[in-house]
Amino acid sequence: MKIAFMFPGQGAQKTGMGEDLYNTYEQAKRIYDLASKILGIDVAKMSFSLEQEELNKTENTQIAILVNSLAILEILKSYDIKAQALTGLSLGEYTALIYSGYIKLEDGIRLIQKRGYYMGNYIPQGEYKMAAIMGLESSKIEAVCESMQKQGKFVVPANYNYSNQTVISGDKEAVEVAIEKLKQEGAKKIVELKTSGPFHTKKLIKAKELFEKELEKIDFQQGSIAVIKNIDGTLYKDTDNIKQILANHIISPVRFDKTIKKMQDENIDIYIEIGAGKALTGFIKKEIKEARVVNISDVETLKKALEEIKN
After folding, report:
1. CB of 218 within 8 A of CB of 243?
2. Which of 69, 169, 200, 297 is catalytic?
3. Among the listed residues 271, 276, 307, the one whose alpha carbon sits nearest the alpha carbon of residue 291
4. Is 90 assigned a catalytic role?
5. Which distant-in-sequence residues (6+ apart) come within 8 Å of 244 by Cβ?
6. What pTM does this model have?
7. Does 249 qualify as catalytic in the annotation?
8. Are 99 and 73 in contact (CB under 8 A)?
9. What are the residue ranges in the chain where pLDDT is below 70?
10. Who contacts 58 (Cβ-Cβ below 8 Å, separation ≥6)?
């Protein structure tokens, strides 16, 4: 049986996530304690006790989601459950790279603290919005965005989640105009997202430049498990410039649609989402109706997952 582990990105967070795992499994507690020691902050307290509004701040969110997924991975090791392919949504790609061995655990945790801080604090002043467009092919969404950019309005595709859902991002007013145009083009459903930053667009160029300096300090290794890149849906190779890829990742669209196709090509039998939320397994089920999907986010779902994997 070929297993893929998938790791969530920003937007999956909720106050208290991982708390029952922390209280139940010593392996999980060790990861939270280690992360706290590395960063000099109480990661468990931040994840379990912060008000949702505070947890939603990018500099807090990214650490909390990463450590939650790493803690679950540590528990799975004790059950000898391993993956043959790894991927994540934006931030989640770092969890994959750490698990595969491309990035040392300590380095990965420090990198995410910096990444979250830069992405949350180095955005040009302005009002921004993101919206998920469903039921309309991405080529039509791209055409609307390109047309508006020619008029000097900033709105671009930021996340290609699956073939039938693309997230646009940009200036608030431009996104609102684009939403009306996309309705006219035949979009079946449009959901405005809670995330306010123009993530995965050129607006984050300053964050990218600052993060590049952090990446230069890291000694990347060769991974032991295949990791699929968000940036183009291909596997990381020995010849890849990982530092450049991860820096560009901040200002480039997430191609999870291509990632799904690659997992199909890799003949994955079971897709396991590790961490808060169910977004990634939701994308998989939309694209591959017959796919076996599993979510692990707490003690109850962990027990269900162990039964599913055994079968």
Report:
1. yes
2. 200
3. 271
4. yes
5. none
6. 0.95
7. no
8. yes
9. 195-196
10. 10, 116, 117, 119, 120, 197
